[in-house]
Amino acid sequence: MEVILTPILGGLLHIVDLFMQIILTVALGFGWVTGPATDDPITFQDPENVQMSFVLWADTHTRSTAFNPYWLECGFEDIDNSGLDFDAFVIAGDISEFGDAPSYELVWDAIADSSIADETVFLATGNHDIRLAYESQTEMIMTKESEYLGVEIDKPYYSYDVNGYTFIVMGSDEWQFEKAIISDEQLAFLDSEITRATATGKPAFVICHQPLANTHGLPEVWENGDLGEDSEAVKEVLLKHKNVFFLNGHLHDGVYEKSLEVFNEANGVYSINIPAYGKDNDYGEWSQTGLGDYVEVYADRVVFTARDFQAGQSLEGMTYTFYLK
Predict the structure, then answer these.
(1) With contact defined as beta carbons under 8 Å apart, do 234 and 182 qualify?
(2) Which domains does the chain have, with CATH numbers?
(3) What order do you get walking across the sheet with 88-92 strand by strand?
(4) Helices and strands: H and E segment counts in the chain
(5) What is the value of pTM for the model shown?
(6) Are strands 269-273 and 260-264 parallel, antiparallel or unpaired?
(7) Average pLDDT per block of 10 residues along the chain, 325 residues long
(8) Cα(242)–Cα(203) distance, rounded to whole angstroms?
C-alpha cells in the first residue's frame, strides 16, 4: 500500500493542480486574488537586542493545487516585506493534507523562494502527514529535515540549537490516525534536552503537533483532539523544568483567549496553540486562514505576536510577553 498509494494520489492531485492553475491565473488577472498588505509590517519591539527570532506556523495542509501554494507564497512575501532576518521557521505538523510528495514539494519550493530559505527550518510530523503510510511519509519529512539542518535525522523527534536556544521537535513513534504515541525513549530524550537547554536560564521551545489533554478548550472544542494516552507523561516532563514553551497546532482553534495555557506561571511553563495556517479555524475572534505567530527572544523575555501572514496584519491585542524565571 505504501508503494502504490502515494504515486496514485500524487498523480490525481497533479491533474487537479493543472485545473486550479487555470482558475488562479484568471483570478489574478481580474484582481480577485491579491498579496499581503504592506502598511502593517512585522516589527520587533527592540531590534537591537533580539537574541533569536522565528516564525511559527502549523497545519498548512498543503494540497497539490494552485491555491494552497499561493497562500504559502503570501505568507512568505509578508515575511520578506518586513526586511527582518528571522533565525528560524517552524511548521508544527500537518504540513500536507494527504502526505503526498507533490504537495510537500510545493512547500519546499515556497520556502526555497523566500528569505526563510537562508535560515533554520523545523518540520514536525502531524497526523495528516503520517496516517496513510507512516514509515515512508515520516522518512520523507525527516529526509528533508536532515537536508535543512545538515545533520542526519532518522527519528520523528530531534533537537537543534539556534543562536544558543534549543528547539525540541516531537512526533509520533508509531502509526496513529489522529493522536500520537510517545515512546519512553522519546520522553527520556525530551527530559534530557530540556534539562540541557534551560540549564543557564534560557527557554526551551518544544514543538508537538497535538495539544496536551484538557488544554486550549479541550475536550469541549474537540472530544478526541489531544495528544493521546501519553499526554500526562509529557506534561510531567515539562513541569519538571523552568522556561519551557510547548507549542502545538492540530486544533484549528483560531486566535483567542484559549490560545494560551499556563501550566506553571512561577516556573514559566506555558502552552501556546498555533492556529491553522492552511484552513479556516473554528473558534476565536480571528478564524481566517493564514494565521500564525512570530516570536522574539530577548535575554529576559520571550514575545509571541499572532499575525495574519496572508493579509499582512498583526492581530490587535494578541501579543504575549513572558519574562524568564
Answers:
(1) yes
(2) 2-323 (3.60.21.10)
(3) 120-124, 88-92, 52-57, 291-297, 301-308, 313-323
(4) 7, 12
(5) 0.91
(6) antiparallel
(7) 47 59 55 77 96 98 77 92 96 94 92 93 97 92 97 97 98 94 98 98 98 96 95 98 98 94 98 95 91 98 97 95 98
(8) 8
